[in-house]
Each structure stands twice: as structure tokens, then as C-alpha cells.
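Good morning N.,

You mentioned wanting to compare the apo and holo forms, so I went ahead and generated the holo version with NAP. This is what I fed in:
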Amino acid sequence: MKAVVYDRGGSPDFLECREVEKPTPRGNQVLVRIIAASVNAADYRSMRMGIIPKRKIFGADIAGRVAEVGASAIKLKIGDEVFGDISDSGFGGFSEYATVPENILALKPSSVSFENAAAVPMAAVTALQAMRDQGNIQAGQKVLVYGAGGGVGSFSVQLAKYFGAEVTTVCSSRNVDMVRLLGADHVIDYTKQDFIASGTQFDLIMAVNGNRPLPVYMRMLAPRGITVVIGGALSQVTKTILFGGLMSIGGKKIRILAAKPSTKDLEFIIKLVEEGKVKPVIDRRYNLQQTAEAMQYLGQGHACGKVIINVG
Ligand SMILES: NC(=O)c1ccc[n+]([C@@H]2O[C@H](COP(=O)([O-])OP(=O)(O)OC[C@H]3O[C@@H](n4cnc5c(N)ncnc54)[C@H](OP(=O)(O)O)[C@@H]3O)[C@@H](O)[C@H]2O)c1
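and this is what came out, ligand included:
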């Protein structure tokens, strides 16, 4: 099978599309013929840090068809259309086939394309767990999505609207129209205006990207408001881990998210996609041979939604 192999650290130049041995599913694993995958910050950030995944192949988000089943796989059968986040089982999505424990995959509705299904797993589940589990989002709340333009951001805007929030987004000029189309009530272009100038106090701040001092986020919270730091600059994430607890005073809270792959959450989100309530935003499409280019593009940090790898 063809796979994009990464066995030397540091740069997308070392990603090489070549023939490797097709794996065999064991136990509760199934072999998935991957049709589409998507790129996440987790892929390029790990690559930049020189981390080589267990199977020497990046790619967490996949959508495809079950081609073989392991001896003790009972949930899935050959031909099932599935999708999921395989980062916890060693990545391996930038490849024609991957062996995956069947319990981490969800069934793809036939009306949802493989591209759209591949766009969902890591980004949408992260957005959902941040706002629902850490942020305790409620209808009618004022929610800020800081860094709304990328994968997690574009799902955050739509899910916050689904939960009935009034949504303000912060993004650059090129993403203004896109976030409006996704339903944002207010859009702040960070190249022209600082969100502090809005004077709004938010019940929930989703810090998806960028790098703002934590006291700024705390100042912009309403009484009992919550800031959930999802990503952005390493310093923003590190400071939240170190000082988030100490800064959570007077009813306001700042929390860090560590999202976990969840089939239940995948099923929740794909139903919204099926019903047209959430629409994956696809910025660019590449083929498997162009994966290094796709990683390079995402690594620039300004994708508008998701970047897809069409595998087969
Ligand atoms: N905590 C977790 O469990 C978890 C899980 C998944 C991802 N993450 C993190 O979440 C973050 C987003 O992931 P992603 O996959 O959505 O990445 P992505 O698709 O690469 O995000 C790119 C977006 O970030 C925006 N951006 C870049 N610099 C910005 C700035 N200074 N201010 C505001 N927006 C800015 C860009 O919009 P503009 O072009 O408009 O600037 C672009 O649309 C990453 O840091 C990732 O590591 C965390």
C-alpha cells in the first residue's frame, strides 16, 4: 500500500510517499481502506517537535470503508463506512489502509461525504468538549471564539450557535465572511480592532488560537464566566497549565482543555452534519502524494477551516 512515511524528524521535506507493507487487523481491530483524511495542528506540531508517530505515519482523522475485520471484532463488518480520530492508536491516517480498534470508529451516514466525515473528528470533538464539558455552555450566553478561522474555530462557531449562544468571533480579514456565513453574530477583525474595545463581557471565552495574556481574558469575562484555553501559542497554553488554577478567583474560571477521542461525541456531531446544522468548512484538498505540501500549508497557521487529503 502507499503511505506517507515520516522517519526523520523536523520538516515536511522528510515526509515521503512510498510503498509499505499493508497491515493485518488483529483481535478487535479492523482494516480501514482510507478514502479521505484531514490534517490537524496535532500532526504538524508533533512533526515540528521531531516526534515520530508509532507507525511512522501521521494523520489522526480518517474516513473510509472497512476492508477486513480482526477475529474478535464484533461491532463492524466488511463494507461499513466509518470515520474517526485514530491519534490514540498511533496515528497512521496518511495512508491507503490503517488497522484501528473498532470501538474508536463511528459509522458514517451515507448522505455525508467521506471528505466531510474526515473533516470532523479531532477539530469538532475538541470544540464540543471545550464548550460543553469545560465551558458548560448555556443558551442565551455571550460566547467569544478567539481564533475562529481554522478547524477547531469553524466548528466552535457553529456548535456555539447550535447551543443557542450569541457568538462573537475574532479572526483576520480573510476569514470575516466565512465566520459570518457560519452564523457568527459579531465579528472582530483582529488586524483592525482589539476585541477588548468591544467592551463586552463574555460568559464563555473559547481561546482557540492566538496569544493573549491570561489577565486580558479574565478581564473580559462576565461574573462566573469561564475561559477555556484550547490552543494557540505554546506560552499561552503553558501559562494556563501553570497559573490557571491560581487565577480562577471570584467566581471566574480559566481552564485548559485536553480533548479525548470519543465515539459518542463523533455520533453527536455527525448527526448535526447529516441534518445540515453543522457544515464542515473545507479550505483545500490535496492528494496523498501532496501530503507534505498540505502539512506545510497548515503549518503556516492560517487555514480557513479544514485541509483534506483525498487518499483514494
Ligand atoms: N486542547 C486540545 O485538546 C486541542 C485539540 C485540538 C487542537 N488544539 C489546538 O487548537 C488550536 C487550533 O487547532 P486547529 O486544528 O483549528 O488549527 P488550525 O486549523 O491550523 O488553525 C488555524 C487558524 O488559526 C487562526 N489564527 C492564527 N493565528 C491567530 C492569531 N494570532 N489570532 C487569532 N487567530 C489566529 C487562523 O486564522 P486567521 O488566518 O484569521 O488568523 C487560522 O484560521 C491549535 O493550537 C491546536 O494545537 C488543542
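The CA atoms of residues 291 and 309 lie 7 Å apart.

Happy to go through it together on a call whenever suits you.

Best,
F.
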